[in-house]
């Protein structure tokens, strides 16, 4: 995966928090079949690095596998050793941003305020994760985007549902994509329910894109 070659990819980041290594391959294969490209395994999942390494080896040439909840440089170094190029943080750590960029990674930096956003941007971030979006809400999201540079891409994460009205509103305010959490995957969800959730999100996105 080259981070220069992500334009045109479905900008729905599938967040698989809590997924087990033994189920990850099956679940991710269905995401790829449905057209998902960005797939994140948060580091607070069981055996997360092992799962990430497995998925990268199996699917790294077909999609963008990455790590979430990368909160500091030491964790980032462990992630980089797996070969993935997608990094997602819940926080602003300037050294994480700099090392991720130096390692040619695509990094989404978690922020909640304009101050955090500008700290991230001034350290080299170009993709911002507005988190938790259910607290910021569309009104707060609009206010934050109004002061950010236009070239910065913002993704609401937290509380996003397969709801066309909700997603369309964020898109109309300037969102470039979404991180999909518990409404897509939660630990222990059946494969059948997971596929149903993933299909609904993709259908809503396709309708918005028409």
Automatic annotation (TrEMBL):
InterPro entries (UniProt xref): Aldlse_KDPG_KHG, Aldolase_TIM
Pathway the protein contributes to: Carbohydrate acid metabolism
Coiled-coil segments on the chain, per record: none
Entry's EC annotation: 4.1.2.21
Enzyme's top EC category: lyase
SUPFAM superfamilies, A to Z: Aldolase
Keywords, in A-Z order: Carbohydrate metabolism, Lyase
GO molecular-function terms, A-Z: 2-dehydro-3-deoxy-6-phosphogalactonate aldolase activity
Record-stated family: Belongs to the KHG/KDPG aldolase family.
Subunit structure: Homotrimer.
Protein name, UniProt field: 2-dehydro-3-deoxy-6-phosphogalactonate aldolase
Record organism: Gallibacterium melopsittaci
